[in-house]
Every structure is written in C-alpha cells, then in structure tokens.
Amino acid sequence: MRISIFLIVAAVTASACSPPPQSNSDRPGAGESSATTAAGFDVGPVLAANAYLVDPEFADADVERGETLSLACVVCHTLRPGEDHVLGPNLGQVVGAAAAMKPGFAYSEALAASGLVWTPRALDAWLAAPASFVPGTTMVFAGYSSSDDRRDLITYLLRATEPGR
Ligand code: HEC
User: Fold this and answer.
1) CB-based contacts of 22: which residues, under 8 Å, 6+ apart?
2) Please, what is the end-to-end C-alpha distance for the chain in angstroms?
3) Residues 143, 48: contact at Cβ < 8 Å?
4) Among 101, 99, 124, 127, which Cα is nearest to 114's?
5) Which of 71, 75, 77 to mutate to test the pocket of ligand 1 (most atoms within 8 A of CB)?
6) pLDDT of 18-38, one tens digit each?
7) Ligand 1: lining residues by beta carbon, under 6 Å
8) How confident is the model at residue 143 (pLDDT cuts 50, 70, 90)?
9) Which of 74, 76, 155 for mutating ligand 1's site (highest number of atoms within 8 Å of CB)?
C-alpha cells in the first residue's frame, strides 16, 4: 500500500512538472534558447581565489570530493601554475583571469571571444555544460549536472590552481 501511494504521488508530481506538449519538440534546436550562454553572462564579483574561500558556500564544501571530481579534468589539464598545457590549457591561477589568455595554447575562437572572466559563478555555468555555455568550444566535457558537485570541484580548484598549494 505504501508503495502504491508513493507511485501515485510520484505520477502526479511528474505530470504536474512536465512541460505542455510541444508540436515542434522534434525540431532540431528546439528548446536551446533557454540554455545559459556566455553572451552577456554576469560573472559576479572578480576577486582573488583566496577571497572566495571565506564565502560560506565554499567554506562548507567537501574539498576532498572536489579533488576526486577533478580527476575528470586532469586528463586534459594541469592545475598548478607554470605547468605545461596538455590537451587543454594549464589552469594555474585561472580564477580571476580572463578566458583564453594563456600564452602558447590554441584556444577556440568561441572561447577567445566569450568575454568571460573565470569567477566561481562563470566556472559553475561552464562546468555545468561547456558546449552550451560557449557554443563552439573545443573542450569536450559533457558537464557536471549536480550543483553540489560543481561547488565541491570549484572549491578544490580555488586552492589547487593557486601558487604554493
Ligand atoms: C577532453 C579534454 C578536456 C577535459 C576532460 C576538460 N577540459 Fe577544460 N578545456 C579543454 C580544452 C581543449 C579547453 C580550451 C577550450 C576552447 O578553447 O574552446 C579547455 C578550457 C578550459 C577552461 C578555460 C581556460 C582558459 O584559459 O580560459 C577551464 C576553466 C577548464 N577547461 C576547466 C576544466 C575543468 C574544471 C574540467 C573538469 C571538470 C575540464 N576542464 C575538463 C579540454 C578539456
């Protein structure tokens, strides 16, 4: 009985949340207009990496989990300042830096023209879905859909990409 009540509640909730049927939902690109893109994106305050770490959002994050999540990044990126570019650019001191500014790396035109500055807010949008945030980027990464995961990862990056960490 408990299970069937749960199922009814779940079904009602699901139908209440689903969007109205769309006649054009099979059209390529349908719904894309709602994706967050870098154009006109408000990156928020630009601070030094350390200054963000006192924010409760980051102070309470699970940095160890962030380090584990960063294993998906270090396939393509080095994190410490001064290390070599690999498939992606070195991410040393990326926080607070303008996008696509590392010398010696061939960035996409899309990222170079994005106008982004890598604040936690910008990193959060980028890491959720790089290809829709910066259409045309050459970073092949599907994205982390969990905002908790992104917070933990960004908190780790705030430390790991700074000198002497
Ligand atoms: C398959 C390789 C690959 C993976 C995996 C990957 N990246 Fe990237 N990343 C790239 C490439 C290539 C670029 C340059 C993109 C462009 O020019 O459009 C890039 C760019 C970036 C930039 C912008 C750097 C700058 O100088 O503007 C950041 C930040 C970044 N990646 C973070 C991450 C993080 C964090 C992860 C892990 C969640 C990750 N990337 C996973 C390849 C990768």
Assistant:
1) 30
2) 55
3) no
4) 99
5) 77
6) 454 444 444 444 444 467 999
7) 72-73, 75-77, 87-89, 91, 94, 99-100, 102, 107-108, 110-111, 118, 127, 137-141
8) very high
9) 76
The pair of three-digit structure tokens given for residue 75, joined into one six-digit string: 């396939």
Neighbours of 67 (CB within 10 A): 17
Residue 152 corresponds to which amino acid? Answer: D
Give CA separation, 129 vs 9, 28, 34, 86, 148, in Å: 31, 18, 13, 21, 15
